[in-house]
Structures are given as structure tokens and as C-alpha cells.
């Protein structure tokens, strides 16, 4: 049996147009046609995946998130802009930006609806110096077993 592949993620967007602007301006996503479900929705294209925004008064979960892969320059630019706007979310995961054991980097921010968005890049070392200066190293924060040290967001 072939493993399924992800198609889309769907999140709440009580102010639909504010969320559309956020994902368009911050991440460069494109709004694409969406069906009429009887309530406002917006489908956003990101590469070959989609983000579906739905306008309903549902509170975003505190820890649930989806992750986007970015190049180091793109993550640096977005991180610095998000930090300036107060969107970076250090409390949720314990760090504004973190270096993982495999040399990757991850950072979290919240969209206008409060949804948690993880930003990942394979090369922490390639991030801008001012971004790296804010980082914590996971291996220094929490003990890592040999198996933990083999974990990677970017296999193969």
C-alpha cells in the first residue's frame, strides 16, 4: 500500500481577509478559487500544497501547528519582520528560534487568528547573524539520546 501524501491543512480565520493578507504578504502564498461551503473560506496555494482558511469563530489551539519549509534567507527575512511586528512566539516552544541537533532551524509565529505556524530551514548556519544571535540550541536545553540525535525534519 502506498502511503498517503498530505494535501492541505485547514485553520480558523475569524477575520478571513486579514489572514489572507498575512499569508500572502508574509509567505508569498497565492489565493486560489475555492468552493462555496455556505460560509466564507479562502484557499491559499503554497507550492503543491494548500492552506485552507475558514471564517468561523473557533479559537486556535495553543500547541497545534503546521510547518513551512523556507530557505535560510527567506526564514531570516520573515523572522526579522515578524519579530518587529511582535508575531514571534517564544513561549509556546521555549525559544524564538532554535537550532536542532541536525543543524536545522525552527521558529514559530502566530497568524492574525492565533494559529501557530512553524518555520523550518535545513541550515541554521546559513541564517543571518542577527537571527542566529536570538537562537537557543536544543541539545543545550534538553538532554538528547542517541536516537533523539538522529531525528531530522529533512530526511534523505
Strand order of the largest sheet: 5-8-7-6-9
Report low-confidence residues grouped into runs of 5 or more.
none
Measured as a percent range, the helix fraction is 25-40%
* Count of runs of 4 or more consecutive helical residues: 6
* Range of strand content: 25-35%
Mean pLDDT: 90
Topology as H/E string?
EHEEEEHHEEEHEHH
Report the end-to-end length measured between terminal Cα atoms: 21 Å
The rough form would be described as globular
Structural class: alpha/beta
Total E-strand runs: 9
Largest sheet: 5 strands, mixed
What is the C-alpha radius of gyration, as a whole number of Å?
Answer: 16 Å
Structural descriptors:
156 residues; five-stranded mixed beta sheet; 6 helices; 27% strand; globular
In short, what is this structure?
The chain has 6 helices and 9 strands; from the N terminus they run βαββββααβββαβαα. It is α/β, with parallel strands linked by helices.
Would you kindly provide a written description of the structure presented here, covering whatever features stand out?
A hairpin with a 2-residue loop joins strand 3 (41-46) and strand 4. It is globular, with a radius of gyration of 16 Å. The chain has helices at residues 16-27, 72-85, 90-93, 129-132, 138-141, 146-149, and strands spanning 8-12, 30-32, 41-46, 49-54, 65-69, 97-99, 105-110, 116-121, 136-137. It contains six helices and nine strands. It has a five-stranded mixed β-sheet. The protein has 156 residues and is of the alpha/beta class.
Helices and strands in order:
Blueprint (H helix, E strand, L loop, with lengths): L7 E5 L3 H12 L2 E3 L8 E6 L2 E6 L10 E5 L2 H14 L4 H4 L3 E3 L5 E6 L5 E6 L7 H4 L3 E2 H4 L4 H4 L7
Parallel strand pairs: 1-4, 5-8, 6-9
Antiparallel strand pairs: 2-3, 3-4, 6-7, 7-8
